[in-house]
Design a protein that fits this description.
The protein is mainly alpha-helical. Keywords: Cell projection, Cilium, Repeat, WD repeat.
Length: 720
């Protein structure tokens, strides 16, 4: 059906499908559409328009009102639509209009229509439907309430609201579809669906099928006994086949209620309900078997029940044993107190709760066992009571045990009292420990210094001060560690206090080269660099190039050019004295001079530069002599050596022995060599260290034979 409008043109209103015998449209006469039919005698087939379905006795005014409503609704003129239909009072008309709203998905119009019908149930459903986010879901709820079930199903499928679709199938008793939807698309409601299906089957007396659905819903443990309670044989068979402990226990309780204790024991055993087994055995006075069950299973509840039975029978030893197995230490302590088992209370109280420990402590105190009472008060958390009793009884051992568990949250006055006690009794280490716990760090450090209490790494970490006095106290801790030769700990504390110079001094005493280098590197202070470099000079830096570079680097970073210059001079001396490498010595002296040029130009610096210049000149002169000999200019070389010897004095870097040795090594005349050697003996205290044994032998000289004593170990030479 179509509407025509001047503004909207042609509008689709309704689609009606024709059957095979309806051959041709004949006429449209609201509320009917007439078709030619080849199956009727009058050849006319009447079809009611969708807007008039379910409406009987339509008068002309109602007919006109419905048509005007449909037209204005189609063109979107809601005011005229409701104005046109407002005069209609037929509930059938309004219900039919609401059904049409399902097709057009006009919930606003449907709400008005259902309001005119005065159906509160549907109106409430429509209000609740507004909570659904999907339009199709809202319309589907309307469709269900106006009897359009097929449309509702399609709408729910189209918006994929499988939870509502599941409820829809349940409501229409289409359980196969409901279960299928739950299994595939609504698994969160799967168990609930099976449970509701089972209730439906139960109502229809399909017990077997209902049990299967209850099992799928995992609610069979409650409902299976109820369903089968009238036939105990079937119930037993079902329980035996299920092997479910819950069902075993239910059946056991049922058998017990009927007095069948044998069957009850059997099913309690199958359910592994040890408490109930022991309870039934006690009822049957079979205490031996009950004891075996309680011992073998370790079930605390079973042991407790059996213990109460033995206590009632005044079999206190057995009752005590099973109370202990049940970890019911309060009951065990009570039995010990009532029956004089005082020697067993201590062991039981150690495992008991604080309340029972305090009760046991009071009992032991009354019995005169003060030491154990103190310890139990302490374990029960009654520290004040424990300490008061320890002080009054002067129990030092108990005080020592208690003190190890005191914390910073303990009452400060209590901590001070314990510390004073240890001080009075000369237990200084424990006093220091308590003072550290109390946060009295300065007093603890002073005590360490005064009484030489060992300052361990752990104790030092506990003495971790805060506030404005932090650095001062850290330095005190460092000095204490330093006095105890704990150099690494002292270094750590000085570093934490920001005193890197003291830290380096402490670390230097440890001789830990790697840490000294590391500390100097991270400190970035001139004095620290110099101290580290001075220390490294005392090591074997000659065989370790990395160490040599580190020394130079530290002096350079500290801008200690005087010290660096002296180090280069020392390098030059080593090169000459040990390796006779005058080339490297010359390079080192040049570096030493370069360092001095970076200093202020004062008299001392100028004199130092002059000294190094002279040493450089001597080294160059020696090298010139060597080159002359190497080139064959022996006479010129001898002349330059004599000149060099005449220039040497105590401040020179070139040893006279090296010059004489150079002359003799290049002298061809043996007599001249002997003359040079005689002169060398006058100028050099130990000529032998400059000359090779072969040269000495060629000169004909042998060491003087001398009697070596503990007072004289000099060795002389004589010429043969």
């Amino acid at each position: 059906m179509l509407w025509t409008s001047d503004e909207k043109g042609i509008l689709l209103h309704e689609i009606i499908s024709l059957t095979n015998h309806q051959t041709k449209l004949l006429a449209c006469d609201a509320p009917h559409i007439l078709y030619l039919s080849n199956q009727k005698a009058d050849l006319i087939d009447r079809i009611v328009m969708g807007d008039f379905h379910g409406v009987s006795d339509i008068n002309p005014s109602t007919n006109k009102a419905v048509l005007n409503f449909s037209y204005n609704l189609s063109v979107g003129n809601m005011d005229l639509a409701f104005k046109a239909i407002n005069s209609v009072s037929s509930e059938a008309v309004w219900t039919n209009l609401a059904r049409n709203c399902v097709k057009t998905k006009r919930l606003d119009v449907a709400t008005v229509c259902m309001g005119r019908v005065k159906n509160g149930r549907v109106a409430k459903a429509l209000r609740e439907a507004q909570k659904e986010p999907e339009l199709e879901a809202k319309v589907a709820i309307l469709a269900i309430h106006v009897g359009m079930l097929d449309e509702a199903e399609q709408l729910l499928k189209s918006c994929k609201r499988y939870d509502l679709l599941n409820k829809f199938y349940q409501t229409t008793c289409d359980w196969d579809k409901a279960v299928r939807v739950a299994e595939t698309n609504d698994r969160v409601h799967l168990r609930n669906t099976h449970h509701l299906h089972a209730k439906y089957l139960e109502q229809n007396r399909k017990i077997k099928e209902a049990l299967e659905s209850y099992e799928k819903a995992d609610t069979h443990r409650i409902h299976a006994p109820r369903l089968l309670s009238e036939d105990i044989y079937k119930l037993k068979t079902y329980v035996d086949q299920s092997s479910d402990p819950v069902l075993f226990k239910w059946l056991a309780q049922y058998m017990e209620s009927t007095g069948d204790m044998k069957s009850a024991l059997h099913y309690y055993t199958m359910a592994k309900d040890h408490l109930s087994i022991v309870r039934v055995l006690c009822f049957l006075n079979n205490f031996n078997q009950a004891s075996e069950v309680a011992q073998n299973t370790g079930d605390r509840a079973a042991a407790y029940h059996l213990a109460r039975q033995f206590e009632a029978m005044e079999r206190f030893d057995e009752a005590l044993s099973f109370f202990i197995r049940a970890q019911a230490y309060g009951n065990a302590i009570r039995i010990c107190k009532e029956n004089g088992f005082t020697d067993r209370i201590w062991g039981l109280a150690l495992s008991a709760a604080p309340r029972e420990q305090a009760d046991a402590a009071r009992y032991l105190q009354e019995q005169g066992d003060i030491h154990k009472a103190i310890l139990l008060y302490h374990k029960a958390g009654m520290v004040h009571k424990a300490l008061d009793l320890a002080f009054s009884s002067e129990d030092s051992e108990a005080l020592a045990i208690i003190s190890t568990n005191l914390t910073g949250q303990t009452d400060p006055s209590l901590l001070q009292r314990v510390a004073d006690y240890f001080l009075t009794n000369g237990q200084y280490e424990r006093a220091v420990d308590i003072l550290a716990t109390a946060g009295k760090f300065s007093e603890a450090v002073a005590l360490c210094v005064e009484h030489s209490v060992l300052l361990t790494e752990e104790l030092a970490e506990r003495l971790n001060p805060t506030g404005p006095e932090r650095n001062k106290l850290l330095i005190e801790i460092g000095e204490c560690a330093l006095a105890q030769s704990n150099y690494h700990l002292a270094t750590k504390k000085f570093t934490q206090a920001g005193d890197k110079v003291r830290a380096m001094k402490a670390l230097l005493k440890s001789g830990d080269t790697d840490k000294i280098i590391f500390l100097a590197g991270v400190s970035r202070e001139k004095e620290v660099y110099v101290m580290a470099a001075n220390y490294l000079q005392a090591l074997d830096w000659r065989s370790n190039p990395q160490l040599l570079n580190t020394i130079i680097q530290f002096y350079s970073k500290a801008k200690a050019y005087q010290s660096l210059s002296n180090f280069y001079v020392a390098c030059a001396n080593i090169e000459i004295e040990e390796y006779q490498d005058y080339e490297k010595a010359g390079v080192a002296l040049t570096e030493a001079k370069r360092c001095l040029t970076k200093l202020s130009d004062d008299l001392i610096t100028r004199k130092a530069v002059e000294t190094i210049d002279r040493r450089i000149a001597d080294v160059h002169q020696f090298l010139r002599c060597r080159r002359l000999f190497d080139s064959g200019s022996v006479e010129e070389g001898m002349s330059q050596c004599q000149k060099l010897l005449s220039q040497l004095d105590s401040a020179t870097i070139v040893p006279p022995g090296d010059v004489y040795a150079l002359m003799m090594e290049n002298e061809r005349d043996l007599n001249n060599s002997r003359k040079i050697f005689e002169t060398m003996k006058r100028d050099v205290s130990d000529p032998a260290k400059y000359l090779s044994p072969q040269l000495l032998e060629s000169l004909g000289y042998q060491p003087k034979s001398a009697t070596v004593t503990q007072f004289d170990d000099d060795i002389g030479f004589e010429v043969k």
